[in-house]
């Protein structure tokens, strides 16, 4: 990894995000922002993570101090902004929470009717704080549309002119969500150079993700494959990503081996390393299958994730029916997830229809997810859109063979087992037929005991830690600072 020399001042990088594990996590965004900054800090940077305040266990159970209080106007409302700093730097970097009573003081990150005002206040509150306090970072790094207005306001609002020379990085974790707002919301923004209104606009609405890509100094996507796919599938922003391709870089997310390590994972009943992966996975499978009433002697196929169309969860019921409805194919399936209520009902119905073959847990439990990765023989990801994907990386870390649709980051990180040095199973289309054929390939593999053992050991030897990815972010920082 690239590191800073002892003689130079530690460069100050601020990450802005709606999520950060373990404070608040809904998906992969939380995992990335909980890990990448720690690796940057180890490389010699001074790293802050700034996120909204949520009424979450981490916040309630740890020691925070209020380091700043101020006021700003958002439209006709006078808002108070409080900055809460975690005192002990428990996460390996400095953590700051922005609390704005009435907007940024809630239980969950998303799902509120005034979400536009919520994240606008978060961004405005951040800029108001650092300019008022005379803080001038070396880089401001914005994650997804929730922070997409930051570069525009830094560069085109006189109120924040002190930040005009600070370079910015934007990371697109999921380009399908863009934070669209009608133009009547513009009155809520801090005063800005109205000649620059086009930087906010895309197809007649304010588009924060579009503004982020237009205004940031450089942007990244969470895999090289996804960088290319955004030019052909970006929910209306395809032309913009093509125009701004020169300042884009694809960097595959890493995983934190201190969290995802079957040899030391405190959430597992039975820990194991590469040397005893066969025995360790078998013991974990027995424990999980007995808990959910599945046959411990059969191979176990898992799905972990949101029930959403982009994840291909809508074809899960057909996959299950096609496999389980044809008689005893010698397979169990374990599903952990939540989301679309119709998908939840359909999948729950099939678990009731095939109680000894299919188990479902609606919702998300971090501990259960770790236990499923350790117990499963295969993990299926039939995604239509997968910018990077972390589940396949977690599964491989635990010796679980991924069955994935060849898209985005899945295609970048999983090499089909029929290729030289291959270790996973890919299928071309997000269709039930293609997915079922891939599962049958997995069952044929499972019958080849020696090859299964070799692939498991090969998977556990792969390095998807943050070291390589963090070095690429550091290179971007150094280039734009210079």
UniProtKB/TrEMBL annotation:
Functional pathway: Glycan biosynthesis; glycogen biosynthesis
GO terms, biological process: glycogen biosynthetic process
Keywords: Glycogen biosynthesis, Glycosyltransferase, Transferase
GO molecular function: alpha-1,4-glucan glucosyltransferase (ADP-glucose donor) activity; alpha-1,4-glucan glucosyltransferase (UDP-glucose donor) activity
Residues forming coiled coils: none
Catalysed reaction equations from the record: [(1->4)-alpha-D-glucosyl](n) + ADP-alpha-D-glucose = [(1->4)-alpha-D-glucosyl](n+1) + ADP + H(+)
EC number(s) given by UniProt: 2.4.1.21
Residues annotated as domain Starch synthase catalytic: 12-240
A Pfam family it matches: Glyco_transf_5
Positions with a binding annotation for ADP-alpha-D-glucose: 25
Function description: Synthesizes alpha-1,4-glucan chains using ADP-glucose.
Family, as annotated: Belongs to the glycosyltransferase 1 family. Bacterial/plant glycogen synthase subfamily.
Name of the protein: Glycogen synthase
Organism: Parapedobacter composti
């Amino acid at each position: 990894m690239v590191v800073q020399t002892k003689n130079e001042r530690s460069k100050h990088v601020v990450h802005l995000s709606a999520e950060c594990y373990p404070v608040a996590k809904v998906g992969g965004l939380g995992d990335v922002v909980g890990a990448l900054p720690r690796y940057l800090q180890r490389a010699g940077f001074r790293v802050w993570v700034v996120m909204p305040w949520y009424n979450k266990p981490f916040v309630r159970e740890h020691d925070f101090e209020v380091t700043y209080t101020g006021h700003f106007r958002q439209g006709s409302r006078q808002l108070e902004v409080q900055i809460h700093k975690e005192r002990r730097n428990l996460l390996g970097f400095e953590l700051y929470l922005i609390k704005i009573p009435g907007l940024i003081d809630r239980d969950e990150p998303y799902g509120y009717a005034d979400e536009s005002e919520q994240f606008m206040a978060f961004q405005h509150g951040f800029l108001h704080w650092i300019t008022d306090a005379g803080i001038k970072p070396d880089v401001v790094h914005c994650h997804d549309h929730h922070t997409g207005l930051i570069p525009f306001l830094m560069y085109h609002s006189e109120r924040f002119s002190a930040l005009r020379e600070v370079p910015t990085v934007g990371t697109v974790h999921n380009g399908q969500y863009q934070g669209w707002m009608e133009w009547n919301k513009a009155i809520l923004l801090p005063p800005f150079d109205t000649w620059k209104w086009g930087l906010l606009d895309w197809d007649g609405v304010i588009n924060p993700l579009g503004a982020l890509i237009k205004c940031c100094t450089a942007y990244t996507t969470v895999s090289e494959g996804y960088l290319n796919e955004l030019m052909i599938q970006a929910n209306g922003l395809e032309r913009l990503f093509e125009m701004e391709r020169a300042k884009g870089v694809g960097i595959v997310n890493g995983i934190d081996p201190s969290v995802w390590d079957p040899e030391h994972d405190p959430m597992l009943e039975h820990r194991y390393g590469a040397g005893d992966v066969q025995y360790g996975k078998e013991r974990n499978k027995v424990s999980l299958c007995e808990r959910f009433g599945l046959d411990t002697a059969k191979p176990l196929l898992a799905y972990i994730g949101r029930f959403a169309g982009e994840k291909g969860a809508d074809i899960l019921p057909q996959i299950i029916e096609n496999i389980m409805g044809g008689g005893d194919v010698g397979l169990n399936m374990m599903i952990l997830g939540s989301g679309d209520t119709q998908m939840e009902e359909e999948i729950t119905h099939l678990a009731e229809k095939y109680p000894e073959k299919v188990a479902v847990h609606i919702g998300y439990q971090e501990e259960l997810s770790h236990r499923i990765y350790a117990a499963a023989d295969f993990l299926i990801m039939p995604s239509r859109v997968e910018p990077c994907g972390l589940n396949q990386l977690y599964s491989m870390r635990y010796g679980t063979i991924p069955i994935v649709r060849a898209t985005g980051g899945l295609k970048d990180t999983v090499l089909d087992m029929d290729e030289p040095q291959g270790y996973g199973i890919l299928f071309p289309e997000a269709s039930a037929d293609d997915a079922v054929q891939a599962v049958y390939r997995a069952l044929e593999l499972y019958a080849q005991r020696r090859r299964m053992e070799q692939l498991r050991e090969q998977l556990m030897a792969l390095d998807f830690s943050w070291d390589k990815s963090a070095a690429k972010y550091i290179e971007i920082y150094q280039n734009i600072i210079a």
